[in-house]
Write a structure and sequence with these properties.
The chain has 139 residues and is mainly α. Helices cover 53% and strands 10% of the residues. It is built from six helices and two strands; from the N terminus they run H-H-E-E-H-H-H-H. The protein is globular, with a radius of gyration of 14 Å.
Length: 139
């Protein structure tokens, strides 16, 4: 699936949830389903700067040139948010990741329902995922 197809799927899933308590519950469920990151990546170089909570992201390029992300956070809502980002960007090419417009964040109302520090953290996570894509694009 393309990045936009996945985003549209997420928008549809969120449109079925009436209020933000249900949406937060769904985000928490997504975080609980996130496969654990290998402990060897819970290091300062994988820690995202700018996040209120601790977030680790790792990326590896698989043999067909697509990027596979793993991540974890010590905050359950943030873990759900990174799970959404991984759902959208995982197993995509570096070029697709760099060219993507992550419109689902606004369409599901996430950006308006996050505290300023969480919004900054979300931007930092996106920035780091794009930085990985840029690094792997040039390899």
């Amino acid at each position: 699936m393309t990045i936009n197809e996945i985003q549209d799927e997420i928008i549809d899933e969120f449109s079925e949830l009436d209020d933000w308590m249900d949406r937060y519950g769904y985000i928490i469920d997504l975080g609980n389903q996130l496969p654990p990151i290998d402990e060897k990546y819970k290091t300062p170089q994988h820690l995202i700067e700018g996040c209120q909570s601790r977030v680790w992201i790792n990326a590896e390029k698989n043999p067909d040139g697509r990027i596979e992300f793993t991540a974890d956070s010590d905050a359950i809502i943030v873990k759900g948010i990174i799970s959404l980002l991984i759902k959208v960007l995982n197993n995509q090419t570096p070029e697709a990741i760099l060219a993507s417009d992550l419109y689902f964040i606004d369409k599901i109302g996430l950006s308006e329902h996050l505290s300023p520090t969480r919004s900054n953290g979300l931007l930092a996570m996106v920035r780091q995922m794009r930085a990985y894509a840029l690094a792997y694009k040039d390899k």
